[in-house]
Design brief:
It contains nine helices and no strands. Helices cover 75% and strands 0% of the residues. It has one domain.
């Protein structure tokens, strides 16, 4: 198998998710995410880089395993035309594409970490915030591309374009909800300058991702978090909506 087959799969890609193919795709996902994770954490410290290299593939594994049954059921109920194994393989392929995209950016992200003000400098707080925003954008772009790719895989098997769209949105909702909470439990990923380097926080189960995001938005927007959140959601949805519209017109 080659990366080209993953990036440009044929119409039979999901027909036979045999063990060899699953292992290869999982390996591509793990390698790409691990390399990218190292480039994310190394700004704080080399040890942090190794920690994040482990945690990014672990985050994907936990999300897929814990949501596997739900995603399979949703796919069957919504008319995706896929069984449980095929649904899991489709999602694994999308995550592998994310890993390949982010892994290809490692030379750039390593240079970014190398040239950013170090965590013990006076500009550490600003550097950390900029670093976080930059990597968030890169991950978001990779995620959008991967989900467009996932929709195309679904469109081949689904009973209709509407069924493919409904399955994709249901999977996105479930995986996004669970994945965000797992990312909270597995924090830190970027390594705050004022905190010790550690694999997990001392209280990983305390609080949740959504509560923290909401409080941060409330603080930044002077209590206008809801309109801001709606605006961000609409902006993020534009590329996906355009891609779905183009697919329907074919």
């Amino acid at each position: 198998m080659t990366l080209r087959e993953l990036i440009q799969p044929d119409r039979r890609w999901l027909d036979r998710p045999d063990g060899k193919r699953v292992v290869w795709v999982a390996g591509a996902a793990a390698l790409g995410l691990a390399c990218y994770g190292f480039s994310v954490g190394i700004w704080r410290a080399p040890l942090m880089g190794f920690y994040v290299a482990v945690k990014l593939p672990l985050l994907v594994l936990l999300t897929l395993v814990c949501n596997g049954l739900l995603n399979g059921l949703l796919g069957i109920l919504l008319g995706s035309g896929l069984g449980f194994r095929q649904s899991l393989f489709a999602l694994l392929s999308a995550f592998a594409l994310v890993g390949v995209i982010l892994g290809s950016l490692v030379p750039v992200t390593l240079l970014l970490a190398w040239n950013a003000p170090p965590p013990d400098s006076a500009a550490a707080a600003t550097s950390h915030a900029s670093y976080l925003v930059c990597h968030t954008l890169l991950i978001a772009i990779a995620g959008i591309v991967a989900n467009i790719h996932l929709y195309r895989l679904l469109a081949v098997k689904a009973a209709s374009p509407a069924a493919a769209s409904a399955t994709l949105l249901a999977w996105l909702g479930g995986n996004g909800f669970l994945g965000a909470q797992f990312s909270w439990i597995l924090r830190p990923f970027f390594g705050s300058p004022g905190l010790h380097v550690q694999f997990l926080r001392e209280d990983p189960m305390r609080g949740n991702f959504y509560q923290t995001v909401w409080r941060s938005l409330e603080r930044i927007t002077d209590g206008n978090a809801l309109p801001c959140l709606i605006a961000i959601g609409l902006i993020a949805a534009v590329p996906v909506i355009n891609a779905l519209r183009q697919q329907h017109q074919k």
